[in-house]
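Hello support,

Our group uses your service weekly, and this is the first time we've seen a run hang past the timeout. The protein is Phosphotransferase. I'm not sure whether the cause is the sequence or the server load. Input pasted verbatim:
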Amino acid sequence: MSIPAGDVEVPALVRRLAGDAELVPVWRNGIGGLTFRAGDHYVKWGPLNTETTMADEAERLAWAAPHTPVPAVVEHGADASHEWLVTRALAGRSAVDPRWIADPATAVRAVGRGLRALHDALPVAECPFDWDVAARIAHAQRRGRQVPTELREPPPIDRLVVCHGDACVPNTLLDDGGAWVGHVDLGALGVADRWADLAVAAMSTEWNYGPGWADELVAAYGVDPDPVRQAYYRDLWNAT
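Update from on-call engineer: The timeout came from a worker crash unrelated to the input. Re-ran successfully.
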């Protein structure tokens, strides 16, 4: 996943969805999907995805919106080959905006605090979505992935929360003062141990800011490092 560089061809459907708004490419994912800023909206477009769909994300955004800052859904749909999602823009910039790549200490702490706030805000008992280990392994196997036997027995649950599902640092938005203001890309949101998110968020600091920031994120979340759970959920992420 990356911020697009150079000229980006705008799909005809995206141009239609954006109307007269200026389109600014802001994100390219690993399967060829693109996200554009279009005035005060964002347009996500990409090939049909076997992992999470934009319809999944629209449903989860609508559920989470009363509890925590997430984009409001305007429209979503799909055809035979592609899907799309239009949302209203939230204030703030991604934690991997060049502004925050240059100040990882501020960004990492904001991501950790934002993830804790998300977990504290979303009501587990009311959540209709599951993201526990058994569900993830079953989903991976339906897609033809073989999950190692040693990952089939997770560590005891520390605390059940409604997890983001893709808590990598780009999916937290920060304001100009360096405080978290919202989350995006919630297509896998569901109930699981909080370390399923926390381990991945900590791991992703190395991809985006370089080594040495994982413990800082965990501390900002408000817990001590847990090497066993962190290692397990990192490996599960990579396997599924």
